[in-house]
Amino acid sequence: MHWLHDLAHTDSGWGKLGFAVLMVIVFFAIIGLLLLLVDRAPKTGREKIQAFLFLLPALLLLAIGLIGPIIRTAVSSLTSGEVDRQGCVPLPALPKRCVIDAGGAWNNFAHFRWAFTDSTALQALKDTMLWTLIAPIAATLIGLGYAYAIDKIRGEAFAKALVFLPTAISFVGAAVIWGLMYQQPSQSGASGLINVMLKWIGLGPLNFPTVGGWKLTLLMIVVMIWIQAGFATVVLSAAIKAVPAELSEAAKIDGATNGQAFRRVVIPSIRPTLIVVLVTISVATLKVFDLVQTFGADRYDGTTLANEMYNQFLHSGLSSGGGTPLGEHRSSALAMVIFILIIPFVAYQVRQMVKQRAAR
Amino acid sequence: MTTVLTPTGGAPAAPDPDPTVKTLSAAGRVRKGMTNPVASAIAILVGIVWTIPTIGLLVQSFRGKHGQDTKGWWTFSDLTFSNYKHVLSGNGNILKNLINSIVIVVPAALIPIAVAALAAYALVWIDFPGRDWIYVGIFALQVVPLQVAVVPLLRFVVKGAHLGSLTIFPSTGLAGTVGAIWLAHACFALPLAIFLMHNFMSEIPRDLMEAARIDGASHGQIFRQIMLPLVRPALAAFGIFQFLWVWNDLFVGIVMSGGTPGIAPITVAISNLQNSTSGAGGELLPAAAFVSIVIPLGVFIALQRYFVRGLLAGSVKG
Q1: Which of B147, B243, B284 has the most A C-beta neighbours within 10 Å, making it the best mutation to test the interface with A?
Q2: Angstrom distance (rounded) from CA A340 to CA B38
Q3: Shortest CB distance from B250 goes to which of A50, A171, A339?
Q4: Closest residue by Cα to residue A195 from B23, B77, B56, B47
Q5: What's the pLDDT tens digit per position in A226-258?
Q6: What are phi and psi of B272, to 5 degrees?
Q7: Which of A211, B66, B99, B129 is least enclosed by beta carbons within 10 angstroms?
Q8: Interface pTM, i.e. ipTM
Q9: Quick one: B2-20+93-317 is in which CATH superfamily?
Q10: Pick the CATH number of A118-359 from 3.30.428.10, 3.40.366.10, 1.10.3720.10, 3.40.50.620
């Protein structure tokens, strides 16, 4: 298998492509084999065995990639960084070894206490709150207004596409795009469009990203809104179209203005969709990492929980060697904080799905 | 965006993604007349504001260092192809990372599609005890943010799984290869993928399945010959979604490729470039970024119909 190892670690482009093609072939060969096995299942308990075989790859991947890691992160966020024999439950066969020793002993929420007292971690928590308060609501409102404004005008599909396009652009690409927009005036004369316009109206230059703090966070939130508004527009536009036209017309015949018809008729009719959009963008915002990392904003006091979690992970040295186990435990604690903040939003989504299934 | 994508595409309840209104009722015409001028002005304004940043990057990517340093992109001064030449062959080369992204994205989209289709088939069409519980459990796993899962998965890839000192699973040998990134994306995509496939497969008429069973077809045959062709739109919708997700991802890529720059996807390379933008080669950044943007944008524009249909059906229904 030496050649396989070499191929997996190769540095040449063709080698990597070859490795990918080979692995995809191997993967589908395994799936094919699995389907053959399904058809050869023994007669007794046949359905159960077949169901198990169909589910096997998914359950295996979920155990490795999600269920195991959740347990591991939860344990690691609650145990000390140093291996501590106090937490050792000895193995019967090998008394010197422990069943649970990888993370050390229970440490009375020390990492969580750190997360809620350390100045950087607190900053991350506050900034994440700011993100989550502003970005989802602003993106949804813009999407709603735009969807309503372009409803049934000529060139609607094109107008929608313009705003929807950023959805396909990565956060990293968006950070480069907006880094250019925000570029601070340099001595050689270059300046971003925003600063040129600020100068027109007589305002001082905006130093991005060195302004730092909540101002920097607000500037990054603008980018988030730019990305998410398209999603809100497309989904809400479809919901607006599903509202029977007779409803708002009846209201208008009774003397309601356009604005009143919108507030009293359209909004209540699309309320469920509005909430879905808000929840979806909120979940994405709580996890925001790429933008902050690409702007390098944490150097100027504009960070988020997900970004701080990554910084702590770097201290652990898990991928690069070196480092201390403390970093991994603290990054686990921050990940758990994100997890806990997300649960209410997703619980709402799950409840909606259950309702929907019951209605069917 | 996760839980919204539900391609029950053909459902009559789902409105057309981009309806070109040809026939207007009398009342509709009244309304149109009332909203038109203001609406058009707003639409044009927002449309321009939303597009300018991207156009700025495109123009900037074709300008030389001198032009970039002295004037704004809207002057269109100092136009040149040299940035792209450098980015694709010379110094500041990101071709390697571009290939990495391609090598990462194809298996990372194919693997979860196949695995999820198999699982969803069992969850919809095979009767076994605990079926609904397993489905709800998998659905609930969508709660888990990547931040919780990715570090332990990296530990598993590097060191294997241990319970105390017992080795349950040896070190995988995937450490430092693209295999680690495939594994991560495949695992994390599964709850959503299974949810989508489940929705889609449960709308296939029961009679069809029963007829096939009576004719003596096995589950393996039904899956291959009946189910897969029927759910092709769902496979496509999820495939596009996962393609865009993996291509645009930074977090999983940066963690799982950490310490091995040779396998880093293009997003990681550009993020690093932007981070050190004051250094030499800053003028190449716009071109590099545009190279990374252009592929998902092309896929997105070409296949938007599938993507939007999937996006809509779920959220509008709910």
Answers
A1: B147
A2: 44
A3: A171
A4: B56
A5: 999 999 999 999 899 989 888 888 888 888 888
A6: -65, -40
A7: B129
A8: 0.88
A9: MetI-like (1.10.3720.10)
A10: 1.10.3720.10
